[in-house]
């Protein structure tokens, strides 16, 4: 097997031509297991005090030379004479970077914004041939029949293996065999594909801890080895989850100054100055009056939504909203109605019905109608139809809550989420929620909106200590205030004076050039991967600009095979698969997540791997005009700008 031809951007996986014949006899583990040693050895030639952590460039637009590793001719001859000794990475690769790929080619850039000359890309579900659905349902039928038979006979003849499903020593079982059926009979069989332990930073590549299971994934045994693999599975959209850099130095300095506990929560006496600074920066970044920080993204939804609506109010939710929002909605005590995923006709029809009928039994007018949607749906990769939903908001006078956990930092020309992507004024949205764990490589969440809204949430939310009287707004009659009709133009970058004086950013971050390059690289990688998979014949869900690219596999039996085949390639690739109950029975999928750290050549590697593995597993059922893999790679720029 040969590797791809080199592209204009250098890669961490670049083969030495003189050793191409070695690739057919090396395993995936031996093929990349020595990369970290090579990175350390390459740096210690220039810096004897370098640490084993991969080096980090502070600018994504700067390329570096290919002198990171030197091929030792004696080592090469030793390997050729002794094929049982795996080659080192110095013999096979020119290692450039493990956390962030360098790409100076300006052609591999796109701007993330909606083209209003084209209609909004609706969420369409492309169906595979009937035999694919038939095979999928037969697979689940066999799973149910054999699984329940094994449970039936196991409880009677092998009771020691089923004590957790039966009353034992006076204790009731924690859950029934039916409730735990899929975790036991489906997920456990491919636990090696779900919980892959890693070490280090989940950047452009990731270091996997090697393990195996002698008992069908009931237990895992670690071998002590590590495998360096291309990472296409993390939510590290802007690649800020890196081990080195001025932002990482700022985190270390903040912990040194304030301690871990003070950095994670507000002080009981009122507020932490780090939180005050962060909330001011968030409000400035989003173009809102105020913002509120929470220590956890899940808790942001589940604890703040009950403060926005209660009895006598109505919450209308998209059917595919995240569990954190569903928890918060249930805890609010409000009436709940559901509309079809991203279907504005379904939403408008429901609005007309609930407004005309009013509250149940009394038919009084609703105290408040709150519509809750996501900016970018993590399982489908679809974007909310924000222009249309804002039109409905102006017509029917409801309040709008948008969860931007996945869209903030990954969409828009300035990375400010769906409002930036669609060029919608931020003050036309009542509540903007987001997290820091995706695009920003940190932790926690936020709520942004009007000043009276944020003050009310400080008083009513379970996640925030009650503020002092001096910080409360005098008017708290409504937890949501209607925004002004005339929205001001969104301000530019936050001035350096808003940052604590002890934070020293490198020039490329201080002037915003680094962030702009990362956002444009992410936009190109997303569009290229999405369009490339379609041209190869795959069924792909989601929006073309989404950093979440769901590739449909359908049959549950193919899911673990796909993951293991991608991981066992000469260049291992880490992917994530999702199946029932997170999706419907027949729509099992692999979820690919490109980031700004990937180069064009990295996306080529992923496309070539998907093309080969997808052909073996019979996954190409798309109706789009098909191209060959070489044509897709050659016309990448055309593909990225055509969607």
UniProtKB/TrEMBL annotation:
Q: Name one GO biological process term.
A: sphingosine biosynthetic process
Reaction catalysis annotation: L-serine + hexadecanoyl-CoA + H(+) = 3-oxosphinganine + CO2 + CoA
Instruction: Print the keywords alphabetically.
Output: Pyridoxal phosphate, Transferase
**What InterPro entries does this protein map onto?**
Aminotrans_II_pyridoxalP_BS (IPR001917), Aminotransferase_I/II_large (IPR004839), AON_synthase_class-II (IPR050087), PyrdxlP-dep_Trfase (IPR015424), PyrdxlP-dep_Trfase_major (IPR015421), PyrdxlP-dep_Trfase_small (IPR015422)
List GO terms (cellular component aspect).
membrane; serine palmitoyltransferase complex
EC number(s) from the headed UniProt entry:
2.3.1.50
Name the UniProt record assigns to this protein: serine C-palmitoyltransferase
Instruction: Give the Pfam families listed for this entry.
Output: Aminotran_1_2
Q: Where is the Aminotransferase class I/classII large domain?
A: 230-608
Q: Does the keyword Transferase apply?
A: yes
Q: Provide the cofactor list for this protein.
A: pyridoxal 5'-phosphate
Provide the family line.
Answer: Belongs to the class-II pyridoxal-phosphate-dependent aminotransferase family.
The entry lists its GO molecular-function terms as:
pyridoxal phosphate binding; serine C-palmitoyltransferase activity
| Organism of provenance | Suillus subaureus
The source's superkingdom equals Eukaryota
């Amino acid at each position: 097997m040969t590797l791809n031809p080199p592209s204009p951007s250098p890669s961490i996986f670049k083969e030495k031509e003189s050793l191409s014949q070695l690739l057919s006899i090396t395993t995936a583990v031996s093929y990349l297991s020595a990369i970290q040693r090579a990175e350390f050895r390459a740096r210690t030639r220039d810096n004897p005090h370098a640490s084993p952590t991969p080096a980090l460039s502070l600018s994504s637009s700067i390329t570096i030379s290919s002198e990171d590793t030197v091929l030792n001719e004696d080592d090469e001859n030793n390997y050729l004479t002794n094929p049982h000794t795996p080659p080192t990475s110095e013999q096979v690769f020119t290692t450039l970077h493990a956390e962030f790929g360098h790409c100076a080619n300006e052609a591999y850039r796109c701007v993330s914004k909606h083209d209003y000359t084209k209609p909004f890309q609706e969420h369409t579900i492309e169906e595979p041939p009937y035999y694919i659905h038939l095979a999928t349902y037969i697979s689940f039928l066999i799973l149910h029949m054999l699984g329940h038979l094994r449970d039936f006979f196991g409880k009677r003849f092998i009771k020691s293996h089923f004590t957790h499903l039966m009353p034992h020593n006076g204790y009731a079982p924690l859950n029934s065999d039916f409730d735990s059926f899929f975790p036991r009979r489906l997920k456990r069989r491919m636990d090696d594909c779900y919980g892959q332990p890693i070490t280090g930073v989940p950047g452009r590549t990731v270091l996997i801890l090697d393990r195996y299971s002698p008992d069908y994934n009931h237990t895992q045994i670690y071998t002590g080895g590590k495998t360096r693999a291309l990472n296409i599975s993390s939510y590290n959209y802007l690649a800020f989850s890196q081990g080195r850099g001025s932002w990482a130095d700022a985190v270390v300095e903040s912990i040194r100054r304030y301690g871990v506990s003070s950095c994670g929560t507000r002080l009981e006496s009122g507020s932490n100055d780090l939180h005050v600074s962060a909330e001011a920066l968030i409000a400035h970044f989003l173009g809102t009056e105020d913002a509120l920080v929470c220590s956890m993204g899940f808790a942001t939804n589940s604890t703040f939504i009950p403060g926005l609506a209660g009895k006598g109010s109505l919450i209308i939710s998209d059917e595919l909203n995240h569990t954190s929002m569903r928890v918060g909605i249930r805890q609010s005590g409000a009436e709940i109605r559901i509309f079809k995923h991203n279907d504005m006709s379904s939403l408008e029809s429901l609005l007309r019905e609930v407004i005309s009928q009013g509250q149940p039994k009394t038919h009084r007018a609703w105290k408040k109608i709150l519509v809750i949607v996501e900016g970018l749906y993590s399982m489908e990769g679809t974007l909310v139809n924000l222009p249309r939903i804002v039109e409905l908001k102006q017509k029917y006078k409801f309040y709008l809550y948008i969860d931007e956990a996945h869209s903030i930092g990954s969409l828009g020309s300035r990375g400010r989420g769906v409002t930036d992507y669609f060029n919608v004024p931020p003050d036309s949205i009542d509540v903007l929620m987001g997290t820091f764990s995706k695009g920003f490589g940190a932790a926690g969440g936020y709520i942004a909106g009007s000043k009276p809204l944020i003050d009310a949430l400080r008083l009513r939310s379970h996640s925030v200590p009650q503020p002092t009287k001096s910080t409360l707004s005098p008017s708290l009659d409504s937890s949501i205030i209607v925004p002004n009709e005339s929205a001001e133009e969104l301000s530019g970058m936050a001035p350096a004076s808003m940052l604590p004086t002890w934070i020293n950013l490198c020039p490329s971050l201080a002037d915003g050039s680094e962030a702009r390059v990362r956002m444009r690289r992410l936009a190109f990688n997303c569009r290229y991967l999405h369009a490339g998979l379609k041209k190869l014949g795959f069924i792909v869900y989601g929006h073309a600009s989404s950093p979440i690219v769901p590739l449909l596999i359908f049959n549950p039996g193919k899911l673990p095979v796909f993951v293991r085949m991608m991981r066992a390639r000469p260049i291992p690739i880490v992917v994530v698969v999702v199946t029932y109950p997170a999706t419907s029975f027949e729509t099992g999928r692999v979820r690919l997540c490109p980031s700004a750290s990937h180069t064009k050549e990295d996306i080529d590697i992923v496309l070539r791997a998907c093309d080969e593995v997808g052909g073996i597993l019979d996954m190409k059922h798309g109706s789009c005009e098909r191209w060959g893999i070489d044509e897709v790679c050659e016309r990448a720029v055309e593909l990225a700008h055509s969607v």
